[in-house]
Specification:
- The chain has 13 helices and 15 strands.
- The chain is of the alpha/beta class.
- It has 2 domains: 2-185 and 387-405, 3-Layer(aba) Sandwich (Rossmann fold), CATH 3.40.50; 199-385, Rossmann fold (3-Layer(aba) Sandwich), CATH 3.40.50.
- Helix 6 runs parallel beside helix 7, helix 6 (228-241) crosses helix 11 and helix 9 packs across helix 12.
- The longest helix has 22 residues, at 62-83.
């Protein structure tokens, strides 16, 4: 079989399924904007938009023009593939940046499965959630214009997938009827508790093993969308009451979602300036971006792992933390509450309440044995609902096969991670 995958940042959400297809002998071509990631057996082709977004274009349509430019670049890459004799049996790709918009203009009779990650709403989601960034009169029109990318994608795909039930619920009715809830899956055989793990912070000359009072925080960017300010404001109480605790923070000092700090400083520097001497830099370690191997070691030594998020896309890192047997203190926001049940598979706290977050962290540090069952239950839940090999893969293969046959999938049949 010939598979064409499209994502601006290879491999994106497709690491597990692409590796499986390659291992079983299928031909996989992947279109992506240039990056350093590689995977054996995958023919990786780069595309680039023809130009940048028009300077000074109306801010309601800046993202839409970027999407059109991305779609045009992918259109041309697909035409070049077709000219060289390549015809996919199915095209699979992320719709959020416009890349999937015009694939059907190259191969009208080839099924297309789009990854629909998020539909923007003025209420009940990320916009207006943070009191520090109140919604403005421009946000409603801006979000409607941004959702036009999704509307264009719906016209250009045969079917869609989205990773969680809450994300699915954000889409309008006419879209939900064509989108299956299907997470990309967690490799629970790889991401698992490791009592032999050791995590070293070379700059501090210190290492940690499972059982140490280590608080961990992991995000792509250290930014408000992932609750970084709330987490930092919780730390003085934790450090004061647990003088033996260390905090390991992994992530880039950058913004990937939302806005930069209004002062021009990074969010990390702004929080360090705000908290001053209440943060003991000998016990709070900023690790920057870490390798995946160190990512797994970080989770393995965690006594309490903190995951906070706006009502927005749920990160893989939270599910991986649970798969690794971490005690997760999560924000009581809908994406997290879909997975974590308070006191059963983790602990929940108000995103906006650093004192409450600190109390949950301290609760977890105070009596690790008390939460051994919660850790086991967290891993069991991930294995039962999100394990790639035993749960996700059979559903993924069934969905792909249905589309390749030219049949219409049953709406959400067997593909929802929740019962």
């Amino acid at each position: 079989m010939n598979y064409l995958f499209i994502h601006q940042n290879f491999p994106g959400q497709y690491k597990n399924i692409v590796r499986h297809l390659v291992d079983r002998g299928d031909r996989v071509v992947f279109l992506s904007q240039p990056n350093e990631n590689r995977m054996a057996g995958v023919r990786l082709l780069a595309y680039r938009p023809a130009r940048a977004v028009t300077p000074g274009i109306h801010h309601y349509i800046r993202d839409y023009e970027a999407a059109i430019l991305n779609g045009q670049a992918v259109l041309r890459a697909c035409m070049a593939l077709k000219a060289r004799g390549f015809r996919p049996d199915i095209v699979v790709g992320h719709v959020g940046w416009g890349e999937m918009s015009f694939v059907k203009d190259v191969w009208p009779d080839v099924p297309v499965l789009g990854y629909f990650e998020f539909y923007y709403r003025l209420a009940g989601s990320d916009v207006g959630f943070d009191p520090a960034v109140p919604a403005t009169i421009d946000d409603g029109p801006r979000l409607r214009a941004k959702n036009s990318i999704t509307a264009l994608a719906l016209d250009g795909v045969d079917w869609g997938q989205t990773p969680t039930r809450w994300q699915w619920s954000r889409f309008p009715d006419h879209a939900r009827s064509r989108i299956t809830v299907l997470h990309e899956g967690i490799d629970t055989a790889l991401v698992r508790p490791d009592p032999t793990a050791r995590f070293v912070v070379p700059e501090a000359g210190i290492g940690f093993r499972p059982g140490a009072p280590v608080v961990t925080y992991l995000a792509r960017g250290l930014e408000p969308y992932r609750g970084f300010p709330s987490f930092m404001r919780a730390l003085p109480a934790v450090l004061r009451r647990r003088p033996d605790a260390h905090v390991l923070i992994a992530g880039q000092d950058d913004v990937f979602y939302g806005r930069r700090h209004p002062s021009g400083r990074s969010h990390v520097q702004a929080m360090l300036d705000e908290l001053g001497g209440r943060i003991d830099r000998n016990r709070v370690h900023f690790l920057g971006r870490i390798s995946y191997e160190r990512h797994l070691s970080l989770l393995a030594v965690s006594a309490v792992h903190v995951y906070l998020t706006y009502p927005f896309v749920l990160s893989w890192s939270m599910l991986e933390a649970m798969s690794a047997g971490c005690l997760v203190v999560g924000s009581a926001t809908p994406p997290v509450a879909e997975v974590i049940t308070e006191g059963e598979t983790g602990l929940l706290a108000d995103f906006h309440d650093p004192a409450a977050i600190a109390e949950r962290i301290l609760e977890g540090l105070a009596d690790p044995a008390r939460f051994a069952g919660v850790r086991r239950a967290a891993r069991t839940l991930i294995a039962e609902r999100y394990d790639f090999r035993s749960v996700v893969l059979p559903r993924y293969e069934a969905l792909l096969a249905t589309l390749i046959r030219g049949d219409r999938p049953a709406e959400n049949a067997d593909c929802r991670p929740l019962a």
